[in-house]
Design brief:
Blueprint lengths: L8 E7 L5 E7 L7 E6 L4 E8 L2
Antiparallel strand pairs: 1-2, 1-4, 3-4
Length: about 55
């Protein structure tokens, strides 16, 4: 039998302050959720973004 490969899934980074879906990434499933400081165009500053599946 062949090994089952984990397929990359699309995740979105959602701004904590506005709730906007600003970024999308592809990554392998598993591991802990991302929390990154990214630029929010609406607020014109860097804010925390959390990983969320749509």
């Amino acid at each position: 039998m062949s090994k089952s490969k984990k397929k990359a899934e699309t995740i979105f980074l959602v701004c904590e302050e506005t709730g906007d879906y600003n970024y999308s990434l592809k990554r392998k499933p598993g591991g802990e959720k991302l929390r990154l400081k990214k630029y929010s165009a609406r607020l014109r500053k860097h804010t925390w973004h959390n990983e969320k599946k749509k």
